Amino acid sequence: MGALTKDVRRVASGWRWTHKPLVPRSVEPPEQEHRDFPTAWARTEAGKAARSFLQGYGLAPLLRFELTTRVEGLDVLQALRPPVVFVANHSSHLDAPLVLTSLPPRWRARTAVGAAADYFFDVWWRAAATALVFNAFPVERAGSRKSTRLARELIGEGWNVVVFPEGTRSRDGWVGEFRAGAARLAVENGIPVVPIAIRGSYQAMPRGRGWPAKGKPPVTVRFGRAVRPIDGEDALAFNDRVRAALATTLDEDRTTWWDAIRRSSRGEAPDAAGPAGPRWRRVWEASRPLPAHGRRKVFTR
Amino acid sequence: MSRPGFVLEVDERTPPTLFHHGEGFRLEKLPLGTRVVYPSEPLPGIRDVDAAIDAALENPQGSPPLRTLLTPGTRLTIAVDDISLPLPPMRMPDIRGRVIEHVLELAARAGVDDVKITIANSLHRRMTPKEIKRAVGERVFRSFWPEALTNHDAEDRANLVHIGQTDRGEDVEINRRAAESDLLVYVNINLVAMDGGHKSVPVGLGSYKSLRHHHNVNTMLHSRSYMDPTSSALHDSTGRMGRLLADKLKIFTIETTLNNDTFGKPFDFLQKREWEWSVADQAAFLAAKRSTDRTPPHVKRQIFHKIAAPYGVTGVTAGETEAVHAITLENVHRQQVVEVDGQADVLVAGLPYISPYNVNSILNPILVTCLGLGYFYNMYLGKPLVRPGGTMIMFHPVRKEFHSVHHPSYIDFFEDVLAETTDPVQIEAKFEEQFANDPWYIHLYRSSYAYHGVHPFYMWYWAAHAMDQLGDVIFVGGERSTVSRLGFRTASTLGDALDMASETVGSSPKITAMKCPPLLLAEVR
Q1: Is B24 inside a domain boundary?
Q2: Among A211, B103, B210, B213, which residue has the fewest nearby CB atoms (within 10 Å)?
Q3: Nearest to B15 among A3, A15, A25 (CB)
Q4: B487 contact A CB<8A
């Protein structure tokens, strides 16, 4: 390796090119009033047109080229009117694009995605690209009330919002604890939550991978039946119901709708948090490849 | 507003730390938990320096205004600090020149005819006309050079006067013209806390006979540190001499202090905190690193010695020496003091291309030792940054290179003296007199641009306190045979050096690194 390359690499890694530079803890300035990256421009008519083009002619074909996607349960949307909160499990950077490209164009055009402020909005160019392509808005992972302010404003304007309530990508492929922000949004605004079960994205592109695995791995996006907050229900209780609904939707995707609702009604729906045991066993199970999508064989020998 | 110096604790978020490495740089990923002492940011400079000089001369400390001391018949001598200050040299106009112009303005108005300007170069090399012109300014140079603007000659017996002895029997011998003047005005730049005060006249205008009383191993071993005049045998001795002189002569001291603004563009990244480097700073570093890595040392030196610092002036004080110097030290401390909690087992420092004794010259191995173990180690108040028996790791290429005009006696010191012993006490006892009185060295000192024959000894003594205290000294990136001659060890990387240091300080030492220059003075508690 040439000396110049070595020096450049050293500086690039030391100063985290492509990421926001970090400040050593011992000199970190006291917390200052954080100013969100402006994203309103991405929801103007020009932004919408550009996004429609990028999603329709860039993102969707790319996902189709790299993955074998199957979208199920879109019929649940027929009974709904925006705004709604879409809640999905999260184990890959593919999740947000998968959800967006799975939505019918009419819904997609009115949907914004909550994205981690400290990751997607740390440098201007990433923030701008995320805001434009995904109609993303920054969400503080810390989960303060302030962090959902923008989401509340968007819902007030009639936008659907996609939230990954785990707050980060799963490390083992299973569903983690849900933060109550999404449930609180729904309760406060009296709007339904649509659970979306994503299976296969962990196998296709888990943490640490920058591009999907070869061989067009299968991925399923299944929309579950909407959950509505009951009068007087608090956000934490509603959050539990949302998580259970998502677990049922995942179970439905693994088995059948009939089996899943029967198990759910008996309170026997498998835990979305995955099996207990050492981490490797959980990762091992979660990374088991999904069966390839294809026509179900009607005639078998 | 400038931010004060502080101690950083290295964690996984800390980018690599930049160190000087002679005429080059190193980026080092320091072990987690290492403490890095960062200097204060430059204090704001005085906006109207000329007004500040006027005010200082008109309202001196413990003395009537300068204008009242000047009469038509006054025999006036202005002595001025030499090229060893400041480092790097300051951008034009040099503060010395500005002060001298104000003094001369008053002298001219008072009708003073007999004025001489002397560069107080002590046993340092003479300054060249070009260097003098840069320091005192074109107007002063044109008016006085060469008859009335000269270098001090510490070997011109006819022009030295023995003033007397202190109560400890120390000889005080200084420049005759200065001693026989009605008024001696000393113009100083107080870059570090060691400078100035009573050290100016007895040392700057002194002779070997006088300097040997404090420039010796015993004094240096009892100067803890020589950057702290209250705990320094060196300053005790110069203080006694200075007070004797003050009794016999009329001395009007003018001291100036500078801020920490050491590197202008494109080298300003050298004084920024790494995690605050912009993309432009990173690019400037890469460009500087690549060019210094590929350029031969003599070319690099020419480039680096052209760097002039954009210093701001933080103080101008005039009057009676001790009263003036107390204020000056406050100004120096205001800029340089950084509080540090406790001593470390290992001290890490990057040595730059320049020291007080190689301006426009080569930082030879003896000067490297003096810079590291003399100056850097002694940049403390209270306790050294590293504990007794600890290790000092320094970055410098330590090439066996000497400037044959500026440092002739250094070559013989390296080849003959250090080949026999590196022990300062033995060196002093066996070799000092011989080098100090060598006629050839004296001839070169007087007629060429050579440091005095005894000067390499002083450089070695300057490091005596550190040598006495430290358990191990390791140069990272140093030339093996050269460093070995100095009595130290070399390592290729910081990791190797820390491995080697584990022999003396164990495998999990407390490490402190100092980011210097810009200058800092660690107040260790």
Answers
A1: yes
A2: A211
A3: A15
A4: no
**Where in the sequence is the domain holding B413, given as residue range(s)?**
6-41+337-524
Q: Does domain A47-286 have CATH number 3.40.1130?
A: yes
Q: Give the model confidence (pLDDT) of B90-118 as tens digits.
A: 999 999 999 999 999 999 999 999 999 99
Q: Please tell me whether residues B31 and B161 are part of one structural domain.
A: no
The answer on B238 and B93 residing in a single domain is yes
Answer whether A26 touches B (CB < 8 Å): yes
Domain containing B431 — which CATH number? 3.90.226.30
User: From CA A159, how far away is CA A51, in angstroms rounded?
Assistant: 15
pTM (2 d.p.): 0.76
Q: Are B36 and B8 in contact (CB under 8 A)?
A: yes
What is the least distance, in Å, from the CA of B114 to any CA of chain A? 57
- Higher pLDDT residue, B374 or A272? B374
Both structure tokens of B414: 């390296």
Residues of chain B contacting residue A11, judged by C-beta atoms under 8 Å apart: 27, 282, 285-286
Contacts of A22 in chain B (CB under 8 A): 13, 15, 275
Q: Do A25 and B277 touch (CB under 8 A)?
A: no
Judgement on whether residues B121 and B15 belong to the same structural domain of the protein? no
- Of B206, B224, B258, which residue constitutes the final position of a domain? B258
- Tens-digit pLDDT profile for residues A133-188: 999 998 887 666 666 788 899 999 999 999 999 989 998 889 999 998 899 999 99
Q: Could you tell me if B30 and B54 lie in one domain?
A: no
pLDDT surpasses 60 at B130: yes
Contact of B351 with B368, CB cutoff 8 Å = yes
- Establish if B320 belongs to a structural domain: no
Domain count, chain B: 2
Distance in angstroms (rounded) separating the CA atoms of residues A119 and A123: 9
Please indicate if any CB of chain A lies within 8 Å of the CB of B10: yes
Are B23 and B103 part of one and the same domain? Answer: no
* Contact residues, chain A, for B10 at CB < 8 Å: 24
Q: Where in chain A are the domains?
A: 47-286
Query: Following CA atoms B195, B197, B200, B202 in sequence, which dihedral angle do they give, to the nearest 10 degrees?
Result: -130
Q: Is residue B317 part of a domain?
A: no
Partners of residue B282 in chain A, C-beta under 8 Å: 11, 15
**Together in a domain, B178 and B89:** yes
Q: Min CA distance, A37 vs chain B (Å)?
A: 20
Domain end, chosen from B239, B258, B277, is at B258
Tokens of B225: 């540190």
Report chain B's mean pLDDT, rounded to a whole number.
96
Instruction: Identify the CATH number of the domain in which residue B162 sits.
Output: 3.40.50.11440
ipTM of the complex, rounded to two decimals: 0.85
Same domain, B113 and B242: yes
Tell me if B11 and A26 make a contact (CB, 8 A cut-off): yes
Instruction: Assess whether B128 and B155 both reside in one domain.
Output: yes
